Amino acid sequence: MPGERKGWKQDWVWRLEAFGFRALFGLLRLLGVERASGLGGWLLRTLGPLTGTQKTVMRNLRIAFPDMGEAERDALALAQWDQTGRTFAELAVMDQLTPEGGRVEVVGMERLHALRDSGKPAVLISGHLANFEVMAAVIMAAGVPCQVTYRAANNPYVDALIRQSRERYGIRLFAPKGDGTRELMAGMKRGDSIALLVDQKYNQGPEVQFFGQPVNASPGAARLALKFDTVMLPLSVVRLPGVRFRVTAHEPIALGRSEDKAADILAGVQAANRFVEDRVREYPVDWFWVHRRWPDKVYAALDRPASVERRNGPSYSG
Question: CB within 8 A of 278, min separation 6: which ones?
Fold first, then answer.
């Protein structure tokens, strides 16, 4: 049958991809942490600027830092390719990027320990900063029962390999269906905290400001924190020299609880996105600039000729 033939071919393509993925991971593990990270950085620093994604990187930098000089933006774009390549390569050796392994220092560990000892859940939030996988390793090292969501790879065999690599350091992953609210709520009812990256593109939800421009953001973190009468606990990670990292557990964000629940959620969503923006401004090279964070209307305004901009006035500024 045509459908069966197509399914059979797809399965073999997936298996071949998984074979290549496994071989690459094996090579990176043989190289060791520093050489694997360096190879990943070199590859994307060399190839990244030649891809179509380079345009997205440069547009994102223009949106976030409109006053930055062209030479500085070019240098930052190249440096972020290096960081992104290192992060991908380091996935193969994540079991060695832990506090116990000596490559991760933690600031504010007492906040994670207090959360652990409370027996209550919290919503841990962050963004795609440096090697964001390292934050999950710190959560596990602190002994916080936590569910970490992720987007499953399209290839189920590759997805299994990625899960295995993370299981080496105790990460409990699940790929939510839809927005994952039902699964997350079930975990929090059991007393598990949840960890969410709040800087992903979201086509619906409340509109907040991010670098002075409107973005639609997921209300999930704020909504769950309100429902379970808990806080959002922000985490950040900074890449240090020598394939080392510093993870910081910041002051918890307590949400308002007024009669206007929608307003309380909106304020929480804005606070979460403001936290990520502040971290990106501190260490812009560490952010994941390769994804389209802003809505189409912001990119359209960016590309509008200057003459039109002067005639109509600036669009979508904060």
Answer: none
pTM of the model: 0.87
Tell me how long the chain is: 318
The residue whose two tokens read 């907040």 is: 208
DSSP 71-129: HHHHHHHHHHHHHHHHHHHHGGGGGGSSTTTTSEEEE-HHHHHHHHHHT---EEEE-SB
DSSP secondary structure code for residue 289 in this structure:
T
**Quick check: is 318 in a domain?**
no
Containing 146, the helix (H) or strand (E) segment is: strand 146-149
The tokens of 80 are what? 């972020």
User: How far is Cα 200 from Cα 272, in angstroms, rounded to an integer?
Assistant: 12
Report the distance separating Cα 295 and Cα 117, nearest Å: 41
Please count the structural domains in the chain. 1
Give the span between the Cα atoms of 284 and 280, in whole angstroms.
5
CB-hemisphere CA count at 13 Å for 198?
33
Instruction: Look at residue 102 and tell me if it is in a domain.
Output: yes
Q: Cite the DSSP H helix spans in the chain.
A: 2-31, 33-47, 53-64, 70-90, 109-118, 133-141, 156-167, 181-189, 220-227, 261-282, 296-303, 306-312
Sign of the C-alpha dihedral computed for residues 255, 260, 262 and 266 taken in this order? negative
Domain region containing 58: 2-312
Identify the H or E element spanning 208: strand 207-210
pLDDT in tens, 5-15: 558 888 899 99
**Element holding 170 (H helix, E strand):** none
| 317 falls within a domain | no
Segment 50-107, tens digit of pLDDT: 999 999 999 999 999 999 999 999 999 999 999 999 999 998 998 899 999 899 999 9
Does residue 276 lie within any of the structural domains?
Answer: yes
CA distances from 173 to 81, 120, 122 (A): 27, 20, 17
